[in-house]
Design brief:
The structure holds two protein chains of two kinds. By secondary structure, chain A is an all-alpha fold. In chain A, helix 5 packs antiparallel against helix 6. Chain A has a single domain, classed as Methane Monooxygenase Hydroxylase, Chain G, domain 1 (Up-down Bundle). Chain A has six helices and no strands. Chain B has a domain of about 180 residues: Rossmann fold. Chain B is built from ten helices and ten strands. The longest helix of chain B is centred in the middle third of the chain and has 14 residues. Chain B starts with 5 loop residues before the first strand and ends in a 5-residue tail after the last helix. The chains are: A mainly alpha, B alpha/beta. At the A-B interface, helix 3 of A face helix 8 and helix 10 of B.
């Protein structure tokens, strides 16, 4: 997709540049939202949690801006070939990143509900899982910015590790619940948090697939994808 | 690629205008019931190649064609090929509408008359009506068939020229930028007409309008500096071309 030269109509390059800028901006906000939601969860910080929920509106606003920009480019520039694929990929990536922001918001929403006197040590592995998910989001959007499909595919492979995290946390939380029923409500929330993080990884993988499509015009070829066997993941 | 059988087959075609080597080793199949678009920058040879498909280049002094072009397997440059007959089978529509300075009726009836396609006045009337109907012009002109063809609007004149081309029952229709002198509404009508005619003839259209090529054709050939760079399904050429030069051209990065 890395193009040999600029468009004869320079304004077209500016339009595409602006679109890419918006996606990067969204990605940065989504990555921060994941980090802050987890921090709020760890600290029981209601204020920060409220902030994450408020900030999600910014991500939504940029998504709408991306939609407008894409419709405008298609209408005015009639993009073709790799240009067309890139514009379509940008539109889909914006939708996915908006979903990632929603998951972060959802984690933040649980913060006040998790607060109880039986507050369990919010499992040491959950923040690590969150960091891994946030890194995937950051790296996949860097790959989009760099138009680097190989880097994007490499990110897909990390999704398996994230899935393993989820399985392990699932088992730990079930053990907690069995041992002490008073933690059930709290553990149920944490289970959702882990599930959201796992979904964020799936969405990052989707973004990687779109980067590949934009570059090559084909889906990722029979990638070794760990088929969901019988596991709590599904 | 399209599954339709080839109607015309060109193999290793070179065209020269004197010392100018305008087409270099082009091989391509034009298929039945398909619209094939030729695209490429000015001077790339697409019109030259189009014209070699019905030997219109014969009329240009110094023009020379080598290689092999066949219509239903028959060599169109063979000595025994009747060029008048060839041009009836492979009709042509030009960039600028060029009706004869005669009545609308005569414009369409002329070809069938000289080719002896009608045995009676009634039969000729039927051919004229059918051709004008297929060209989407009948309802607009049926009450003034004796008016001059040149009195029609540009878009109507172009449809008259298409009616004239199909009146002799051709098998292939070559169109050389048929819409470049027309407004968007007349252009849309011609494109709709191309769509309607598609099942009946093999159509080849040269166009500078990329969107038009994408809209009307099933296959697209990209020419550059006299060479055929890429030929494939239109949907592939415009979404995922294989060649860097095709990509640069259709995305507006050429030159």
């Amino acid at each position: 997709m890395a193009s040999s030269q600029e468009h004869t109509v320079k304004a077209f390059d500016q339009d595409i540049g602006q679109l890419r800028g918006l996606i990067s901006q969204m990605g940065g906000l989504a990555e921060a939202a994941i980090g802050n939601a987890m921090l709020a969860l760890q600290r029981g910080d209601h204020e920060l949690a409220a902030q994450v929920r408020a900030d999600d509106k910014k991500i939504d606003a940029i998504q709408h801006e991306v939609e407008r920009a894409v419709v405008r480019i298609i209408a005015l520039r009639a993009p073709m070939a790799n240009d067309l694929r890139e514009v379509v990929a940008a539109l889909k990536i914006a939708t996915v990143v908006e979903r990632i922001g929603d998951y972060a918001k959802n984690i933040a929403k649980r913060v006040p509900q998790i607060d109880s006197e039986y507050r369990i040590d919010p499992i040491s592995t959950l923040p690590a899982m969150a960091r891994m998910a946030a890194d995937m989001v950051r790296d996949v959007l860097d790959a989009f910015a760099a138009r680097d499909p190989d880097a994007a595919i490499a990110i897909c492979e990390r999704d398996d590790a994230l899935d393993d995290f989820y399985d392990s946390i699932f088992r730990t939380l079930v053990t907690y619940m069995v041992e002490n029923p008073k933690t059930i409500s709290q553990c149920a929330h944490l289970l959702f948090v882990a599930k959201h993080l796992e979904r964020i990884g799936d969405h990052a993988t989707n973004v990687a697939e779109m980067i590949h499509f934009a570059a090559h015009g084909t889906p990722i070829a029979d990638r070794e994808r760990a088929e969901p066997t019988f596991s709590p993941r599904s | 690629m399209s599954n339709n059988p080839p109607k015309m087959t060109a193999s290793h075609v070179d065209v020269y205008y004197g010392a100018n080597h305008a087409i270099r080793d082009v091989s391509i199949d034009v298929c039945q019931e398909d619209v094939t678009a030729f695209i490429g920058p000015s001077g790339c040879g697409k019109s030259t190649f189009l014209r070699s498909l019905n030997r219109m280049n014969d009329t240009i002094p110094g023009a020379r064609v080598s290689g092999d072009i066949r219509l239903d397997g028959d060599d169109i440059y063979a000595r025994e090929m009747d060029v008048v007959q060839l041009r009836a089978r492979v009709g042509m529509v030009f960039q600028k509408p060029n009706p004869f300075p005669k009545s609308i009726y005569e414009n369409v009836a002329y070809g069938p008359k000289i080719h002896g396609l009608a045995q009676s006045k009634a039969e000729l009337d039927r051919i004229v009506e059918r051709s004008l109907s297929r060209a989407g012009l009948w309802n607009e002109v049926k009450d003034r068939l004796s008016d001059s063809g040149t009195a029609l609007s540009g878009g109507q004149q172009q449809r008259l020229c298409i009616a004239r081309a199909i009146a002799v029952d051709p098998e292939v229709i070559l169109m050389d930028e048929p819409c470049s002198a027309l407004d968007p509404v007349a252009t849309a009508r011609i494109e709709e007409l191309i769509h309607d005619l598609r099942g009946r003839y093999a159509i080849v259209i040269v166009t500078h309008n990329m969107q038009q090529a994408a809209r009307v054709s099933q296959r697209t050939a990209f020419f550059h500096l006299g060479q055929l760079i890429e030929y494939g399904d239109t949907s592939d050429i415009f979404t995922n071309p294989r060649q860097e030069r095709t990509k640069d051209y259709i995305t507006g990065r050429y030159g």
